[in-house]
Amino acid sequence: MESYKFTYSVYQRPFRQPLKTSHGVWEIRQGIIIQLTDTLGRSHQGEIAPISWFGSESIEQAILWCQQIGDNITTAQIYQIPDILPACQFGFGSALLAFNPASSATASTPDLSALLPSGAAAIARIPALSARGYSTFKWKIGVLPIAEEVAIWRQLMMVPRVAKLRLDANGGLTYAEAQQWLEICSQEPRIEFIEQPLGIDSIEQMQELAQIYDTPIAIDESVATFTLIQAAYAQGWRGIYVVKPGIAGLPWRLAEFITQHRLDVVFSSVMETTVGREAAFRLASELKLTRSMGFGVDEWFADSDLAAVDQD
C-alpha cells in the first residue's frame, strides 16, 4: 500500500467582476491546492475546488478533511474518501493518477467555450474573445426578466463571430419560460443547447421538453456529482451531460462510467486554477471528448492564477 507525504495550501481568487447566475452572485473563488510526494521524492499536485451551492462539499468541509489527514496519506485512504466530498475525491484522485506515466502526460489544449457575462454586457465582450480564438460561447439566462433576455439574445445572434451559443439557465426557468426559449431557439441553428432549463429534480420534465422541441437540452446541476450522474442515467436521460470533473468525484470512476454508457459529455469548469484545469484536460483527452469544453474563464479573474495562498 503506497504512502505519500501530504501538504496543502488554501487559496482565494477574486473575480474581476462578480459572476451572476440564477443561484446568486459569486465574488471570490476559494479552493485548495494539495501536493502528494512519494517515497522516491516525486511530487504531483491536485486541486480541491468545491461549489457547495452546486452540490459539492463546502470549502470549510474540504479544509477540515485536509486538516484531519495529517502529514501522510495512503492510496487506500484516497480510494475511501466518502462521496459527500466529491471535490476532495477529484483533487486527491487526479494527484494520484499523475504518478502513473500513462495518465500524467500533458494533454493538448482542447477547443474551449468562453463564458460571457450575463445581460447586455455579453455583446461587448464577443469581439475581444473572438480575437483570442473563441467561436463557441456560453451565456447565462434566467437572471433578468425573460423579455429583456430574449431582446439581448436577438442582438447576440446578429454577431457574426458567434458560431455556437450555449444558453445556461442554471435551473432558473419555469416550465413555461423553458418552452418559450426552446421555441425561439428552434429557429436558430447556432444554438448548441439550452443547459439545465429546469431545477435539479426536474429530469422527467426536461425529458418531455426534449421530445417536443428540436433544440437540444443539456443537464448540469442535475448531474453535478457522480452519484447524480448515475441517478440521471438510471432515470433514462440520454441527452447531453454537462459534467464538472472538479466536483464529479474520483476521476477513474467517472471515466469508466462515461465510457461504459457512451455518454454525450461536455466538460465544464468549476473556476479552478491551472492545476485542476490540466487534470480535467488530461481526462478529456483520455476520453476523446469532442464537444468544446467550458473552460474559457480565465478573463473572469483579476490575477493570472493564484491571488492569495495561505500555507498550512
Distance between the termini: 26 Å
Structural class per helix/strand content?
A: alpha/beta
Strand order of the largest sheet: 11-10-9-8-7-6-5-12
CA gyration radius, whole angstroms:
19 Å
CATH homologous superfamily of the largest domain? Enolase-like C-terminal domain
Number of helices: 11
The main sheet comes to:
8 strands, parallel
Q: So what's the CATH class of the largest domain?
A: Alpha Beta
Describe the secondary-structure layout:
Layout: E1 3-21, E2 24-37, E3 43-48, H1 59-69, E4 72-74, H2 75-79, H3 86-97, H4 101-104, E5 112-115, H5 121-131, E6 136-140, H6 146-156, E7 164-168, H7 175-185, E8 191-195, H8 203-212, E9 217-219, H9 226-234, E10 240-243, H10 251-261, E11 264-267, H11 274-287, E12 293-296, E13 308-311
Parallel strand pairs: 5-6, 5-12, 6-7, 7-8, 8-9, 9-10, 10-11
Antiparallel strand pairs: 1-2, 1-4, 1-13, 2-3
What does this structure look like?
The protein is α/β, with parallel strands linked by helices and 312 residues long. It folds into two domains: 3-105 and 304-311, Enolase-like, N-terminal domain (Enolase-like, domain 1, 2-Layer Sandwich), CATH 3.30.390.10; 112-300, Enolase-like C-terminal domain (TIM Barrel, Alpha-Beta Barrel). 35% of the residues lie in helices and 26% in strands. It has helices spanning 59-69, 75-79, 86-97, 101-104, 121-131, 146-156, 175-185, 203-212, 226-234, 251-261, 274-287, and strands at 3-21, 24-37, 43-48, 72-74, 112-115, 136-140, 164-168, 191-195, 217-219, 240-243, 264-267, 293-296, 308-311. The strands form two sheets. It has an eight-stranded parallel beta sheet with strand order 11-10-9-8-7-6-5-12. Strands 1, 2, 3, 4 and 13 form a five-stranded antiparallel beta sheet that branches. Helix 10 (251-261) links the parallel strand 10 (240-243) and strand 11. The radius of gyration is 19 Å and the shape is globular. The two termini are 26 Å apart. The model is unreliable at 307-312 (pLDDT under 50).
